[in-house]
Design a protein that fits this description.
The chain is an alpha+beta fold. Helices cover 53% and strands 18% of the residues. The protein contains 12 helices and 12 strands. The strands form 3 sheets. It has a 5-stranded antiparallel sheet. A 5-stranded mixed sheet has the order 7-9-10-12-11. A two-stranded antiparallel sheet has the order 6-8. A hairpin with a 3-residue loop joins strand 9 and strand 10. Helix 2 runs antiparallel to helix 3 and helix 10 crosses helix 11.
Length: 452
């Protein structure tokens, strides 16, 4: 757009000069009036009028200078405040910031903006410090690469994985760090790889972000082998602890009874009731050997549980068979709202038999009952086995294999039931009832389309 000559002239000079020009234009009528008076009186004024005219002119100039100062000084103040904000210094504040005054309002808003920016920067710095500590403490390798695939961020776990010093690694490209392959993978992948800091299976996740307007890539590498080894170690420890406990419970009395019988048979002459003692000792040995055999059978059952062979299951007839198997008390069948779905009926029946048996074991000493019900929400089927026993006193060892508090118990019923549930993509939880004393075992399974 073309501008007029006056606009181009005003744009070429500063605000201060334009202000002075406007003040001069404001005083122009007074100057013309004084010139007219001078001309009217023939260019001669008495000394007093001359003095008054000089004083008036001086006062006018001083007032014009004051006006200029009152207009320009707040603008310089605002300029300094805005410059400080641009430089990141949020500590400066403008004086005379008060509401109701045009300039005071502007200074007040600038002061408020400065405080807001200061608070935001403080929060960002605190969040960045926390994020830095989390990244440094997390035991997962984290890398960040710019659009040239040069390393911009690495945490201590990443340094250990690559066997490098972080300060030396920054700025190096992905190829020299042996991470070029990871940036070419899909967003998430599990690969077997050997790095300078270790080898095994790694879960690699890649995502993009922007920093400074430029694309970057974030790479997260998790060592699955170490976690699996730790879980395997803990599982072996639990298994050895349970095996040792069970074997000791069986072998210790067998060893003791064998020694007793050996001493008995070595006596001369044999006591009159030696046959009864031998028969009793052999019975103890046989009972403990049978208990050990049940234990090993239960272990083999857990270890050899096959994958479910799914086919169409009608739940109500299956539940009726399950509750009919429990001979010690009548099991009540409550609401059964379930469509036909795909499952392994043999495994599911075995899991429910174990749950009903445990519920009966808990309810019988209290003279309580057991009930079963089933509901669904269209996606998941929930089967609940409710008892009227004392409830759970602790749940830490419920699903530890071979752990049991019942005399003669095998300790595999709940473990097997949960293994069957998880094999079907479901869950098994035990918790105390909220309506009364007792426990509820809640078996949840996904409703898959029925098929043969």
């Amino acid at each position: 757009m073309d501008r007029s000559p006056s606009d181009r002239w005003s744009a070429g000079i500063g605000f201060d000069q334009r202000l002075l020009a406007d003040i001069a234009l404001l005083l122009l009528p007074l100057a013309l009036l004084c010139g007219a008076c001078w001309w009217r009186y023939g260019g001669t004024l008495d000394p007093l009028d001359t003095l008054l005219l000089a004083l008036a002119s001086l006062a006018t100039v001083l007032l014009a200078a004051r006006l200029r100062h009152r207009v320009v000084f707040p603008l310089f103040t605002l300029s300094n405040l805005l410059e400080a904000l641009r430089e990141g210094d949020y500590s400066l504040r403008g004086s005379r910031a008060r509401r109701g005054d045009p300039v005071g309002d502007v200074i007040w808003e600038v002061n408020a903006l400065s405080q807001t920016l200061r608070d935001q920067r403080l929060r960002v710095e605190e969040a960045s410090a926390l994020l830095g500590k989390v990244i440094a403490a997390i035991d997962i390798a984290i890398f960040s690469f710019d659009d040239q695939r040069r390393l911009r961020l690495i945490n201590p776990a990443g340094e250990r994985l690559l066997g490098v010093d972080g300060r030396d690694a920054l700025g190096r490209d992905a190829a020299t760090l042996d991470l070029e392959f990871a940036l070419s993978l899909p967003d998430a992948a599990v690969v077997a790889r050997a790095f300078a800091g270790g080898s095994g299976r790694f879960d690699i996740r890649r995502t993009g972000f922007r920093e400074g307007g430029r694309p970057h890539e974030l790479l997260v590498v998790s060592d699955l082998s170490r976690a699996l080894r730790e879980e395997e170690r803990q599982a072996w420890q639990r298994l050895i602890r349970v095996l040792g406990h069970e074997l000791n419970n069986s072998l210790a009395p067998i060893k003791s009874m064998a020694a007793t019988l050996s001493q008995l048979l070595a006596r001369e002459p044999l006591p009159g009731d030696w046959r009864d003692d031998v028969h009793g000792g052999l019975k103890v040995i046989g009972d403990r050997a049978e208990a050990l055999n049940r234990f090993m059978t239960g272990y083999a059952t857990l270890a050899r549980l096959p994958p479910p062979r799914k086919r169409t299951v009608e739940l109500k007839p299956l539940l009726q068979r399950v509750i009919g198997i429990e001979p010690r008390l009548p099991v009540q069948l409550l609401e059964v709202d379930a469509p036909a779905f795909a499952a392994d009926p043999d495994q599911l029946e075995q899991a429910l038999i174990n749950l009903v048996k445990n519920a009966a074991d808990a309810a019988l000493p209290q003279g309580g009952g057991v009930a079963v019900r089933a509901v669904h929400d269209g996606r998941r089927l929930t089967i609940e086995v409710l008892d009227e026993g004392l409830g759970l006193s602790g749940s830490d060892n419920l699903f530890v294999p071979f752990f049991t508090t019942k005399p003669g118990g095998s300790g595999i019923g709940l473990v097997l039931a949960r293994q069957i549930a998880e094999g079907h993509g479901g869950t098994l939880r035990l918790e105390n009832r909220s309506d009364r004393s007792g426990c509820v075992a809640r078996l949840q399974l996904p409703i898959e389309p029925a098929h043969d």
